[in-house]
Design brief:
Number of strands: 13
Largest sheet: 7 strands, mixed
Protein name: Acetyl-CoA acetyltransferase
Helix content: 25-40%
Radius of gyration: 21 Å
GO biological process, one term: fatty acid beta-oxidation
InterPro entries: Thiolase, Thiolase-like, Thiolase_acyl_enz_int_AS, Thiolase_N
CATH class: Alpha Beta
Keywords: Acyltransferase, Metal-binding, Potassium, Transferase
Order of helices and strands: HEEHEHEHEEEHEEHHEEHEHEHHHH
Family: Belongs to the thiolase-like superfamily. Thiolase family.
């Protein structure tokens, strides 16, 4: 079923779409690249921790440092060779100055590396990859780390009037997660309502969304239990207290509960009384980080690095804020028109999302983290050789 969806998308994008089953797993060779071609040579992600769960004791920057260090290690690149670090981070309140630089230095990257924190909400992690590609293509940098990091468990509550004084009467405490991460600032409602608008427009029922979420969760649980995520995972050390030994988080926390179909179908709508989106068919709030290492083809050749993938193209697309979920359907044709899009650049769970053309809520395979999710989607893409080529 999933593969047929991929085939359908391929035929929509290109009449010359070829059968992906015939692809080789051989890594790309740099011999056919130009010196400034952008190559991906390493990747890693932390497990996705549940809200106030196993990773809650670490800040976003600390999680980012784990992902960066692991990605560089797998790329066989010394941290002192990094020219630039770009990390997405949306919920920066309380994280401290320059979160990306904190993460970079925590991973052993030298102080000479230029670091930038990017906030493009859910697309932040993917935007860092395109910015890294641009930096390399223009000759500004040769080795760039890009990714995203978030600790939603550590986002503080705000006291909006505390600085000027509350004077008389009751005050209000504002949730930083909602205010800066999950609230539509233009229409003044929760982002979940955008999903409801999309679901209503495309006639997507509660049953369809539950089935999509259940299937996504089943596949993720199966993939995790079979070790398919092992190649992308960077274990996170949680230091023991009062002399107790450290423990290591190695698996996505949301997947450890398995699949409870009855419970999911019994959940009430979250955002609207007669709505279709629930806590079960929407992604959970989580903590985590992901990173990829990009280099120029010349640098890959010089260092003898294994090239996992080449960045062929990218595109941004935006429209009315409440329709953000359908923006990918505008970006894909842009890349296609530039002649740089191949179907293999789209993971099958995103292909299914595009064919709807967009599912009102993202698959819940592990989590939803404002900045990490786009980069996290890139790591399994690279981990599967037939996708990477």
């Amino acid at each position: 079923m999933a593969f047929r969806k991929v085939e359908r998308l391929g035929k929509l994008l290109s009449p010359n779409f070829s059968n992906v089953r015939n692809l080789t797993s051989k890594a790309p060779s740099t011999s056919s690249f130009s010196p400034q071609d952008v190559c991906i040579v390493g990747f890693a992600r932390t497990p996705m921790g549940a809200f106030n769960g196993s990773l809650a004791s670490l800040s976003a920057s600390e999680l980012g440092a784990v992902a960066i260090k692991a990605a560089l290690n797998r790329a066989a690149i010394s941290p002192d060779m990094v020219d630039e670090v770009l990390m997405g981070n949306v919920l920066s309140a309380g994280v401290g100055q320059a979160p990306a630089r904190q993460a970079a230095l925590g991973a052993g990257v030298p102080t000479s590396a230029c670091c930038t924190t990017v906030n493009k909400v859910c697309a932040s992690g993917m935007k860092t990859i395109t910015m890294a590609a641009q930096s390399i293509a223009t000759g500004t940098s040769s080795v760039v780390v890009a990714g995203g990091m978030e600790s939603m468990s550590n986002v503080p509550y705000y006291l909006p009037k505390a600085r000027s004084g509350y004077r008389l009467g009751h005050g209000e405490v504002t949730d930083g997660i909602i205010k800066d991460g999950l609230w539509d600032a233009y229409n003044d409602f929760h982002m979940g309502n955008c999903g409801e608008i999309c679901a209503k427009h495309f006639n997507l029922t509660r049953e369809q969304q539950d089935e999509e979420a259940l299937e996504s969760l089943r596949r993720a649980v199966d993939a995790s239990s079979s070790g398919m995520f092992d190649g992308e995972m960077a274990p996170v050390e949680i230091k023991g207290r009062r002399g107790k030994p450290s423990t290591y988080v190695t698996e996505d926390e949301a997947l450890q509960q398995g699949v409870d179909e009855g419970k999911m179908r019994a959940l009430r709508p979250v955002f609207q009384k007669d709505g279709t989106i629930t806590a079960g068919n929407a992604s959970p709030i989580s903590d985590g980080a992901a990173a990829v290492v990009l280099v120029s083809a010349a640098k890959a050749e010089e260092l003898g690095l294994k090239v996992l993938a080449r960045v062929r193209g990218y595109a941004d697309a935006e429209q009315a804020p409440e329709w953000f979920s359908t923006a990918p359907s505008l970006a894909i044709p842009k890349v296609r028109l530039r002649g740089s899009l191949r179907l293999l650049a789209i993971p099958k769970r995103t292909a299914a999302l595009c064919l709807k053309p967009v599912h009102p809520c993202p698959p819940i395979c592990a989590s939803h983290i404002s900045t990490t999710k786009p980069t996290r989607k890139t790591t399994p893409l690279l981990a599967e050789p037939h996708w990477a080529t």
